[in-house]
Amino acid sequence: MKPNLKQGVKTEISKEELQQLDQLRRHRRVHRKRLPAKTTTAAEHFVPPPVTLGQRLADGVAATIGSWRFIAIQSTAIVLWIVGNILSGAGAWDPYPFILLNLLLSFQAAYTAPAIMMSQNRQSELDRKHAETDYEINVKAELEIELLHEKIDILKERELLALTDAVQALSTQLEMLTQRLNK
């Protein structure tokens, strides 16, 4: 009696694999529901909202103040202010302890700090939206890869089954030829 070679060959996806795929799909749905507001789909591209005048101004202030050029210019201006007032002696416009300089620097800090914070908040919002889009694309890619693995496994199993059938057919023919030769 010939062994049935088809018994060990898997022709469909197992229940466990289907459960894993369903779990991945549920996980994707749950995480989509957690995302705040509407996010773009993987097919869409993220388009940042239009930038207002205030946002452009805040970005410009942050870019200027956050540069070495600004630090060098401000340091030079402060040194010139102090040296100019010290060398002026009794006719100094801001004698030591440089109260006017302190007032100007405080005024500058009072306006630049909020501008920098606004720019950082806007950038954080853009980064968050990019991260959400990336996450959504990654989840979709993961699901598509899982489905491709599933399809490849099915194709491999069908090919293996076809090869098994061919081997069985050849074995049967070989046995029949062997029996004819032995007679």
How would you sum up this structure, described in words?
The chain is mostly helical. It has one domain (15-182). It is 75% helix and 0% strand. It is built from 4 helices and no strands. It has helices spanning 15-34, 53-65, 68-88, 99-182. Helix 1 (15-34) packs antiparallel against helix 4 and helix 2 (53-65) packs across helix 4. The radius of gyration is 37 Å and the shape is rod-shaped. The model is unreliable at 1-11 (pLDDT under 50).
Number of domains: 1
Number of helices: 4
Residue-averaged pLDDT: 84
Report the β-strand fraction as a percent range: under 5%
Structural class: mainly alpha
Question: What features would you highlight for this structure?
Answer:
single chain; about 180 residues; mainly alpha; 4 helices; about 0% strand; rod-shaped
How would you summarize the topology of this molecule?
Layout: H1 15-34, H2 53-65, H3 68-88, H4 99-182
Helix pairs in contact: 1-4, 2-4
